[in-house]
Design brief:
Elements: H1 23-42, E1 46-47, E2 53-55, H2 56-59, E3 75-77, E4 83-86, H3 91-101, E5 109-118, E6 130-139, H4 144-160, E7 168-174, H5 175-185, H6 190-200, H7 203-215, E8 218-220, E9 226-228, H8 234-244, H9 251-262, H10 266-284, E10 292-294, E11 308-319, E12 325-336, H11 342-345, E13 351-357, H12 358-367, E14 379-381, H13 389-401, E15 406-408, H14 416-425, E16 430-433, H15 436-441, E17 443-448, H16 449-457, H17 462-465, E18 470-474, H18 478-488
Parallel strand pairs: 1-5, 7-10, 14-15, 14-16
Antiparallel strand pairs: 2-4, 3-4, 5-6, 6-13, 7-11, 8-9, 11-12, 12-13, 16-17, 17-18
Helix pairs in contact: 1-4, 4-10, 5-8, 5-10, 6-7, 7-8, 8-9, 9-10
């Protein structure tokens, strides 16, 4: 009889580009989302939780730098051979939701949404295929007052999360201004316009000289490879260079420089006027250039947007993996996208919104020391006699009812040392002990595990050595004594 071949055991490993999140990380994210939701709610936005799965048709093609319709998303065919996909952002689902329920929703419709999104892209350091976004959008408001409000709200979110003024800036630009620049250049061909947009997007990396080369014949990159240019004459490139270098010391001076860059273009002038109106509206609310500035270098995949675009950048320095100083960079962005709902309804519906990169912001707060470290675990009630489990559960119930995080040890209680090792691994601040002798005398032992750990590190610490690490108290004082110890380390 042939020997039955065993199936190989599956590998216990996270899929490439994904990761697992544990206790403290999950708690920190939840607290951040709660704080941001509080700001969104205060501004009058309503929560929306849409499906994590959409039809590929509904999602459309909006991922940047992707040529094939389904590239960049996790897609499959269902039993009816319809193509489905995991959402790659929270904006495309909003367009579908609004188009589907528009007769029942107020106009404008103001919603915020938070949750994971998935992108089938090449992973890298700090770049995962699943990550969290935290969005707020206004659908149905054509006024740039809606864009200005989003920028103010974004500024408030950063400050609520503990990023002070001076450590961030919200930068604002307008797609219409760039359209005016293209018009001033005499560029009307869609393919050539796309090439110019891609070149503008490289300004931060190659600088003014590099942009001039790429708009012209081309240039050698850092690896020595030659990159073909757009093929524009030098005089055609001037409006782009003027646009990219028009940032000045004040919003007013920047606006004047942008007016020069767009020349006689009507759409360009309209974009500059919108930026001026936004600056005025923000200043009236107390949001000056110490928080929000006009900056022509903001690009944000301009092919997606139809008007104002904005980006929140953290300006403090961090050390990279090689120990070099660099700025932390962008943590949020958004803008006006008036054509998105039109895909469903055939009618233009104005919309503007922002998306906060939750994982990026969490990393920033850790860099600033605003969050991080270790999270305190639960009080552990040890088990000295399995037959008395009801007594131990009663203790835990009293602690929980007093608002204290607590659990009973549910492993094998034979080895008491293993129970304390478990409590240490759980980062427990306190262990509760009640053996047969304590039960007869009506007392419990309360062990201060934090103090015990510090004494184990250095028994000569003056601030710790005279404090007892274990207390015997009446059973009725269990909750009171545990709370006293917890308060010492609050």
């Amino acid at each position: 009889m042939a020997k039955v071949k065993k199936s190989p055991r599956p590998k216990a490993q996270t899929p490439k580009g994904f990761r697992d999140y544990f206790g403290t990380e999950v708690t920190e994210r939840s607290e951040m989302l709660r704080a941001i939701a509080g700001v969104y709610h205060r501004y009058g936005f309503e929560a929306l939780e849409s499906s994590g799965v959409e039809t590929v048709e509904a999602l459309g093609k909006f991922l940047p730098d992707v040529d094939r319709p389904n590239e960049g998303v996790f897609a499959w065919q269902d039993e009816d051979e319809n193509w489905m996909a995991l959402r790659y952002d929270l904006t495309a689902p909003l367009a579908r939701v609004y188009a589907e329920h528009r007769n029942d929703l107020p106009l404008p419709y103001r919603r915020f949404a938070m949750g994971p999104v998935w992108r089938n892209e090449k992973p890298g350091p700090g770049r995962y295929r699943q990550f969290y976004q935290c969005d707020a959008d206004t659908v149905g408001a054509a006024s740039v007052a809606a864009d200005a409000e989003i920028c103010a709200m974004l500024s408030d979110c950063l400050e609520v999360l503990g990023i002070p003024r001076g450590d961030y800036v919200v930068r604002v630009n307008n797609r219409k201004v760039l359209n005016g620049v293209l018009e001033a250049m005499g560029v009307s061909d869609d393919a050539q316009s796309a090439d110019v947009l891609r070149t503008i997007d490289k300004f931060d990396k190659v600088g003014e000289a590099g942009v001039r080369e790429l708009l012209g014949k081309g240039r050698l990159d850092a690896s020595g490879a030659y990159i073909d240019g757009v093929g524009l004459a030098p005089e055609q490139a001037e409006p782009v260079v003027a646009f990219l270098t028009s940032k000045r010391d004040s919003n007013e001076a920047t606006l004047d420089a942008l007016r020069d860059a767009v020349g006689e273009s009507q759409i360009g002038a309209e974009g500059v006027d919108e930026l001026a109106e936004m600056a005025s509206l923000l200043a009236a609310q107390g949001y000056g250039p110490d928080r929000i500035i006009i900056d022509p270098s903001v690009v944000r995949g301009l092919g997606y947007y139809t008007g104002p675009v904005f980006e929140a950048e953290l300006t403090f320095e961090i050390l990279d993996e090689k120990g070099r100083k660099r700025q932390f960079g962008s943590v949020a962005g958004g803008g006006r996208y008036d054509d998105l709902v039109k895909r469903f309804t055939g009618q233009v519906v104005p919309a503007t919104g922002v998306s906060i990169g939750v994982d990026r912001l969490l990393a920033a707060l850790r860099e600033k020391g605003r969050i991080g470290g270790t999270e305190q675990g639960p009080v552990v009630v040890t088990v000295m006699d399995k037959a008395r489990m009801a007594d131990y559960q009663a203790m835990v119930a009293e602690l929980r009812q007093a608002g204290i995080r607590a659990e009973v040890y549910l492993g094998n209680p034979k080895n008491f040392g293993n129970q304390l090792k478990y409590a240490d691994k759980r980062l427990s601040p306190v262990a509760v002990i009640e053996g047969g002798d304590e039960k007869e005398r009506g007392v419990v032992q309360i062990k201060d595990l934090i103090l015990g750990a510090k004494l184990a590190e250095n028994a000569t610490l003056d601030e710790w050595k005279d404090r007892p690490s274990q207390y015997e108290v009446p059973r009725g004082d269990l909750v009171k004594k545990v709370q006293e110890i917890l308060d010492l380390y609050a």
